[in-house]
Records
---
Amino acid sequence: MKKITICGGGSLGHVCLGFLSSHDDYSVNLLTNHPEKWNRNITVTDIDGKLFKGTIEKLSSNPQDVIPGADIVLFCLPGFLIKQTLEKVKPFLSPDTFVGSIVSSTGFFFFAHEVLGAKAKVFGFQRVPFIARVVEYGSKANLLGYKASLNIAVENADNTEDFRQFIEKAFNTPVNLLQSFYEACLTNSNPILHTGRLYSMWHEWNGVPYDHCILFYKEWTEDAAQWLIDMDAEFMQLLRKLPMNPKAVPPLLEYYESSDAKSLAAKLSSIKAFETIKAPMKETGSGWVPDFESRYFTEDFPFGLRFIVELAKEYRVETPKIDIVYNWGMSKI
């Protein structure tokens, strides 16, 4: 039986716990700052109503209780917690333990190389395997969407094909191996898609509250789509300069089967799994306003777009649209 420890209790942590612990082949532990808020029994309901019932073997805020003996340690954490959590778990890792992240675009590989060293067994997903939402913290979550296939980067595995097959079985989804960690951690998903949308919505906001909470995808505009296209074109220029296969990260127009801003906006606004996702806003006495303390801002700018901006400078790639969006976002947090 494979032993897996999940680090983090956010939406993806909930769904991964329920989904993986529902397998008889896996024993799943949880490292969380709030063990007292968790029930050992967790239930996940997917978009088709299928129920996954799992049991957490051990849960603790102390890595010594849940890390030793783990075959896999899977981070489901925001970017600002990755480095410090790597430092906390490092003393309890065995040389054969794989440490990975469900999200690679928030600095995981850069931090893992720094903390764990060049020989550590690490892996990361190019895109998250699930769209996840918490229903009842510590016990219930919804799995709102699956991916048709998953791409992962793996470093220092004794047998990468065996590891690929393990991830494929665990997540019940076809898995492809990437050639370089850059292909996993540099993505045009959240760091570009989220930030470009936020800039388009609010870079000219005059402080007047909205009469409703904007639906992030369902109300996608052609202006936001054009910013996305322009930022993505600059991003693609960077990928062509890096030691990686640039084809591993398809342009957003190709990924979303679109040809221009109009068709891209139509596509993004019509994806069923995304239709209820709200923009990061908070309600006030007079209406709805942007929430600049949301993870969309505190995560996607300093722990997402930041690495693209830094690499672009290092490799001397001009990114004027990305720079505009990045500087605006950083000024808001």
---
Amino acid sequence: MALIVVVRAPNWLGDTVMALPALHALRAGQPQARIMVVGRWAPLLAGQGTADLLLAYPAGWAARRRFARALADEPADLALLLPTSFESALAARLWRARRRVGFASDGRRLLLTDPLPLPAPRLHQVDEYLLLARAAGVEVADRQPLWRVTPNPSAEAEVDGLLQEAGASPGDRLVGLHLGAAAGPAKRWRAHSFAMLADALTEAGLAPLLLGSAADGPGADEVRSASRSSPRSLVGRDRPALLPPLLRRLSCLVSGDTGVAHLAAALSVPTVTLFGPTDPRLTAPRSPRAQVVHAGAPCAPCFRGSCPIDHGCMRGITVEEIEKRVREAIAS
């Protein structure tokens, strides 16, 4: 019988991308195993060679109980738990996984068969996931997340249509300006700064393109109204499956500390990532083409979702600095 392995993937897009080296190491170390990856963003990993089955993790407790009963019918030999939450360890116990490997955090030590202490000081997220892969008994080779590009003509055609509708031309040197960031407004650059950057990039012969979810719509309206160049926008018009082909069209991506930056970096797209309340030593995109900018505010990193004072960590990042970084990224 083949070994059955269940990986509980992270809950966020960026963390899922940062888990790629660990997932690839597990696949390479257990080529005959039946590997399932379970997580909110797991279906996006189709074509990445990480698993035999990719399952979206249900959101509600009733659905999760049904999901647990289904997995418990054929218990896994190994559950590798990448999130550090109590819930993920409890779920693996309910799945009846025989071996449960994860960090001993959030009061969950007794739910794990192989509890690992959290590193002190903390490591980059990629390296912490690799520690778990080693604890599961596999060798680790690569430390850089790499996204495998697989042919998807329908997605490419859909991206072509979106760009055409937004007013982009085939020869444009697109610079993505991703406006949003999860977990509160503290990680977001001001709309006025994005507007000034869009104008500067347009004057330099580049084509800024606003990106973000539907929730970033008001911010996109504010950027466009504050700018002279009225940049093109795809805010709220893409979807997760279109992100890889869309990001590959960019000459550069400017964003806060968000999952889209990690995906772009894994696709070898030049990135300029603005860090404020979070720590680039722990979660910066890992790529030779990734640049990180932070103002060095004395209160950072605070990891707050919203700033109780003057938001100096993000206000201190100037438009001139980001324009310079974009030019360098495109020229390299």
